[in-house]
Design goal:
single chain, about 220 residues, alpha+beta, 8 helices
Amino acid sequence: MSKRQIYDFLRDLTENNSKDWMDAHRERYEAAKQLWVEECDHLLARLKKHDARYEPVTAKDTIERINNNLMYHAERPTYKSHFGFAPNQQKGGGFYVSLSPTYSFIAGGYHNPDSKDLKAIRAAIDERGEELLKILKAKRFKKVYGGLEEDPSQLKTSPRGYDVDHSHIELLRRKQFTASHRISQNEVLSDEFPDIIEQSFLAIKPLNDFLLAAVGR
């Protein structure tokens, strides 16, 4: 079976996002999901070579539920139109792959840190800001991700306790510390896909390690 079946299923699900349709195509969903679990098993094996924190994680642990949480987001469709690979068992220092017919991507970093973790990250930037800048300027990181994603929630002034003239004020103003890049369907379907994931992981690992150390994980 080909990974193309995953795209075919997700494309049809996007156009027919209802419980009735899913019930009628449950076997297709299970087949597509199994293909993705097997792929995630290969991806996880690559990541475990570089990070011992992934040792206890299984491929099934990395798979997102297909159902959307409608209790708090009633406006969302019944089902997600993507498959995700989320191997992280802790907040912060994350790595994520999203497979979708419309927009597939690889991402990492820390999205929406709570107030405690944001305070810890800012303290780390205050103390070791040059280290973080070196990570963000590294050739491998720049080649894969370009830089950190824009942060529309960042402060317009300095955080409490930090001077507006701080040498790392632009980083201190941030509330998001994420980076991502798009991947094509051809890349996902190619034999090189595990290589792409592994190299993307290695490119963002120094940032993840910095963030994990900052929040004490």
